[in-house]
Amino acid sequence: MVDQSTSLPRVRDFATWEPVLRLMLADDADRRAARPARVAGRVSRHGWSLAHRGPMTSSARAAVEQIQGALARGAVQEVAFRAECRPDGRTTLGLVWPCPSVEPAVGYPDLGVLLLADGALPGPWLRRPDPVPGAAPAPSADPKLLERTLRERLPDAVGATEEEITAAEARLGVALSEELKVLYRVTRCDWEEDFEAAVRAGEAVGCELSGLEDLRPVDAAARCPGWALGSRRAAGTAHGSPVQGLAGSPGWIGFGGNGGDEFAVDLTPGPAGHLGQVILVDHEQSLGAELVADSLTDFVLGRVRKERGGRHADHLPAVAEVGPGSGRPGSVRAAAHPALEVLSIDVPDGAPVTLAPVVGAPGLRTLTAARGALADPLEVAALAGLEFLELGAGEWRSLLDAGTVPRTLKAAAIGVRDQDHLPVVDLANEILALYGRPPVVQTLLDGDLGPVS
After folding, report:
1. Average pLDDT over residues 166-184
2. Beta strands across the sheet bearing 78-85
3. Closest CA relative to residue 124, chosen from 246, 226, 238
4. The whole model's pTM is what?
5. How many CB atoms lie within 10 A of CB 259?
6. Which position among 27, 284, 294, 312 has the lowest Cβ density within 10 Å, counted as fewest Cβ atoms?
């Protein structure tokens, strides 16, 4: 869809963008070789992402800030763009406006990821904890010692009543560990009623302690990095791991923090863990957690682990890449495995590959294939459980023309490497229309940057 409105004249003025385009095209090899040159990027009111190799000089910053000022005056958060400059200097600039059907993402500078279902999350952020039959507290868990220690450190603290603790369990939908109950029997840690007492409680426990009413499970959805990254990840728990490799769990009860990360009592431990162990949920990570202490007693007494374990790591066979590069399988057949979830294919110097070996893979949910990597793009239709698909524009065209775009998809992306980029919005809108999603709006502007000097 091409937007012809004029409600934002400064942003829609080619002259506003000309300094940035000149900046990005200054050392472009295609333009110097008298070939069409293409650049792309994204500018928001508070940042930018530009394919610019040189330093951001004061003049370069001024060029970007000119666009940011126009966005602010027009009350627009950000604009993605892609431009094609022909050898004689005639240039077509496509501006792509914010859209609820698009997730802005690094790696997709001008368009982003197409969101085909409202609120959908990649599979790893929907994964629930595995059952933990027989899980028991660690030998170091000692509610009586924990209570004595806390009462010595907090002689004047006001604790929660049994009714309040029971109400918290009902709200959370889980039975709290005996150690966690002891903690709140000693101190309610009410920051609103007594800030200084809450600070003392945190110092006694060893973290910024949450109040009883603020206890909550670690929210998996809040840790999701979006589809561009999340679709390529897998969640799994290695044999012998103390912590399950999840994004969150109804049994990870956050009770405090360290100014950025969250401490939680783990009621759904891994196969080598203990019920009620203390884990650290890193705010810079989107999956997994680290074991900090075998029990809350250990945590309060400072007996924390020097060598922590349990952080999630992607591993084969759940995630596989086919193509050149260290550690990649040599073929789709080598990557095929019943546990395969994510398959990326890029064979820039080799023959296109067939998807036949992974047809019927029960957990395959993500496929990314570079332009020209698939011998027969229509084989994608045989992958029954795909939730994310990235293909080149030509491959998407084949699926659309054949009416075989998988209806299981929750998100999608169009690879536009080394081809005419501007028509990709029309292609994206065809895909969005299949799922009843709002179309992307693009403004096309014509200008003249003149020939290379």
Report:
1. 97
2. 47-50, 37-44, 78-85, 90-96, 442-448
3. 246
4. 0.86
5. 7
6. 284
